Task: structure prediction
Amino acid sequence: MGGNDLARPPRWADALLRMCLRPQDAETQSGDLLEAYRDSILPDRGRRRADLWFVQQTAGYILRAKGMTLRNWLVAGLALCALTIAFTVLRYPGLFNGWVAPVSAGFLFYAYVAVIHSHPATAEATTVLRLGSTYGIAVGLLMMGGNLFLNFGVGTGWLPVICALLLPFVAGAHAGVKIWRVSAGIRVGFWSGLISGLIMFLGLMAYGYILAFIPGIPGAEFPKNQPYTAIEYQIANVGDTLGGGLFFLFFGCVLSVIAGAVGGLAGLLLARTGRGPGKIRRILW
Result:
């Protein structure tokens, strides 16, 4: 038995593949990938590049999966965020001092919610997830586009940013009135915040690495007193976007939940105007 027959690709990638695909598809795809990994990719490319190939193939299978569900997209997005952070920590260890434990806890919580609570069991849950996904994508794209416009000196970039800040209130009001519960606005705010946070984190990190390695692009961090070395320039720009991405991913979700609650309550109070305080109180329960 050759040494390659015992070699295994990254276990987390294989587990992610099996989690996101249907069982019958996952078994076939995992077996095919493992055979190619051992027989041709590993001997030809070496361990590190073979592992990278396996991760890329896993991501491709997940994104091309039939019936791609919200859970799959969320798990794939969280995995990509985690890989981006891991790569950044390995390349610039000083950027993450003191943040490993809370960020890891945040990712574990998001992964738990994505796996357990993203399969709607009722019509109400289906509506909440649909609204949360729609508003989340809109908020993420508007916020990312506005930030890019502002970095490139486009003054009207504030318009999409303002729209993105207002949308969570609108989402909460929409859900509250549609389902007739303030809690619906809160839940839509959460899903919207999570999805927009993933978009913002990945978008900002991609932009940060572009800034770090292609000097001269608008929005780059420059020293105020003395010139940066090449590595200091990279750390300044990647660290700046890492901080912004983590803010949107975690604190942005909290703010979106608050906005969803406020929007849901306001929408219901407006919809219930003239119907008496007793019914309004019952809504809050």
